[in-house]
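User: Working on a comparison across species. This one is HTH tetR-type domain-containing protein from Phytohabitans suffuscus. Can you predict its structure so I can line it up against the others?
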Amino acid sequence: MDAAITVLATQGVRGVTHRAVDAEAGVPQGTTSNHFRTRDALFEGVVERFAQRERAAFEDLAGAADPRTRRSSSPSSRTGRSRRSGRAGS
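Assistant: Here's the predicted structure for HTH tetR-type domain-containing protein from Phytohabitans suffuscus:
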């Protein structure tokens, strides 16, 4: 589907054909149509893949911005000791 997105970006909607996607992906002619029988089905696949890519990018950004998911460089994170109790693993 990434090949179909590339074709869409470079050739526009009219350029998105099964043959064009096969050529961009470097697969034998007819491969795309085996997986997506119609052009509508091909576009549904493009939309789904695009949504997956965008969701993954958003989750990466959200994770990077969330202090709960970032690795801390504080001394307690390196030693495994809690700042409150001073005990390991707390």
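For your comparison, note: The CA atoms of residues 4 and 43 lie 9 Å apart.

User: Helpful, thanks.
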